[in-house]
């Protein structure tokens, strides 16, 4: 009977692990509906947030510093007191 108890406790632990993984996947799925991760030509995208009280140029310059050069701006918006800039680094 002791073997059955061990089996049942292992199955319970496995069920809890599966439930936790499912909860994480559901949480991440909500994040997946935001900006695309890659451009249509395969370049990764990045989002920079800057204070809405500053000029858009500050976000653009920050993005250029990340890329060490030119960027393609894919989207820009004002959300909850922040400028959000979605961009991809230009190919060199």
Brief synopsis:
Helices cover 46% and strands 26% of the residues. The chain is of the alpha+beta class and 92 residues long.
Describe this structure in words.
With 92 residues, this protein is an alpha+beta fold. The chain folds into 2 domains: 1-33; 35-92. Helix content is 46%, strand content 26%. The protein contains 2 helices and 3 strands, in the order H-E-H-E-E. It has helices spanning 2-31, 56-67; strands spanning 45-51, 71-79, 82-89. Strands 1-3-2 form a 3-stranded antiparallel sheet, covered by helices on one side. The longest helix is centred in the N-terminal third of the chain and has 30 residues, at 2-31. It is flat. Residues 22-33 have low confidence and may be disordered.
Map the helices and strands.
Layout: H1 2-31, E1 45-51, H2 56-67, E2 71-79, E3 82-89
Antiparallel strand pairs: 1-3, 2-3
What labels would you give this structure?
alpha+beta, 92 residues, 2 domains, 2 helices, 3 strands
Based on Cα principal axes, name the global outline: flat
Number of helical segments with 4 or more residues:
2
Largest sheet: 3 strands, antiparallel
Summed up, the domain count is 2
Structural class: alpha+beta
Distance between the termini: 68 Å
Structural Rg: 22 Å
Question: What is the number of beta strands?
Answer: 3
Average predicted local confidence, pLDDT: 77
